[in-house]
Design brief:
Layout (H helix, E strand, L loop, with lengths): L20 H23 L4 H7 E2 L6 E2 L8 E4 L2 E4 L2 E5 L2 E2 L9 H19 L3 E5 L11 E7 L2 E2 H7 L4 E2 L9
Parallel strand pairs: 2-3, 5-8
Antiparallel strand pairs: 1-7, 3-4, 4-5, 6-10, 7-8, 8-9
Length: about 170
């Protein structure tokens, strides 16, 4: 037979405590578990998915979407990403910014987008399902954003930055 080779475990070097990685890792684990415990204490036995789907309070501020990774940002005046889910604000229609038909539509669309960024960052809001329909033809979740009993879409309408949704798009030019 061939030679017998004795295998040994390679020596593992211990990370030096001065690099801070071990301490950082321990702190992250403690924060993660502690946050979960606090959340359970505050929410009791309410399913977390139900809470996450209805009440949104940004951990980080919403900004205008850019690039291909879209998790928590505003696309335009009536579309945003929240927690990786694309949401179409169901009770309004705003001017297009990606394919506007005229300069005035683009200008108003940019104003609506900026205002929606402000509105969603002003504090927590509830996402209510659109009656009778969960998604649009593009796969976006249809939701009405509500804070203190008032639709954020209605605020955009009252400021002249959106129209109440009537079931079909109307021209802005």
């Amino acid at each position: 037979m061939g030679d017998v080779v004795k295998l040994q475990k390679p020596a593992v070097q211990q990370a030096k405590s001065s690099d801070g990685f071990g301490s950082t890792l321990v702190a992250a684990v403690v924060i993660a578990f502690g946050g979960g415990a606090v959340g359970y204490h505050l929410l009791g036995d309410i399913p977390l998915a139900k809470v996450a789907a209805t009440i949104t309070k940004p951990v980080t501020a919403y900004g205008v979407c850019s690039g291909s990774v879209r998790y928590h940002c505003v696309v335009d005046g009536d579309t945003l990403w929240s927690g990786g889910v694309k949401i179409r604000i169901a009770d309004i229609d705003t001017p297009e910014v990606s394919e506007p038909r005229c300069a005035s539509e683009l200008a108003l669309g940019n104003k609506a987008t900026a205002r929606l960024v402000e509105l969603v960052n002003e504090g927590p809001f509830v996402m209510r399902a659109w009656p009778g329909r969960d998604e649009d033809k593009y796969g976006r979740k249809l939701r009405v954003l509500v804070r203190n009993g008032r639709s954020l879409g209605d605020i955009l309408v009252s400021e002249g930055l959106a129209r109440t949704w009537t079931g079909r798009r109307q021209p802005w030019c």
